[in-house]
Design brief:
44% of the residues lie in helices and 21% in strands.
């Protein structure tokens, strides 16, 4: 009889401890989990500078800003999605359509070559836009009006 009482007491202690961990302390462990996550990020290589035989620069790279969204973090927040769409002058339905073809926690590029002014506005609203990230990517710049673009190659 005492053996069964000990088993029941042990199960009761485990049940109470599981309840504490999963229900009462959920926020603490969720924050620890989010801080401990690993994010895989693809680096776009920078193409080299091209000079003519007289040393004049023909083409180079300029920094350009792209906006990415993590679908799992913004999908349930309609107001954030509407705010982002208005800042980028995009249709919220088209932004959501991009989410269906990607993974939940994989960032999706929704805008390329965003101006610094727009980027500053997005940064000012960062607290209202969870899951919105920006990255600097190279943009090819042709100094001779793209007349040699077919020979030198294009980027993006």
């Amino acid at each position: 009889m005492t053996f069964y009482v000990m088993i029941i007491a042990a199960m009761l202690i485990l049940t109470v401890r599981f309840y504490n961990l999963q229900v009462l302390d959920e926020d603490i462990y969720r924050q620890k989990s989010e801080a401990n996550s690993v994010k895989k990020e693809t680096q776009i290589p920078i193409r080299g500078l091209i000079y003519d035989r007289d040393g004049r620069l023909i083409t180079d790279n300029r920094p350009a800003f792209s906006i990415y969204v993590v679908p799992a973090m913004i999908n349930k927040n309609e107001s954030a999605l509407d705010l982002l769409a208005s800042l980028l002058d995009l249709d919220p339905v088209k932004i959501k359509r991009n989410f269906f073809t990607s993974r939940r926690f994989q960032p999706v590029k929704i805008a390329r070559y965003v101006s610094q002014q727009t980027l500053a506005t997005i940064q000012a609203n960062k607290l209202s836009l969870p899951g919105v990230e920006w990255r600097v990517e190279p943009k090819r710049n042709y100094n001779y009006n793209r007349s040699f673009a077919h020979v030198l190659g294009t980027l993006g």
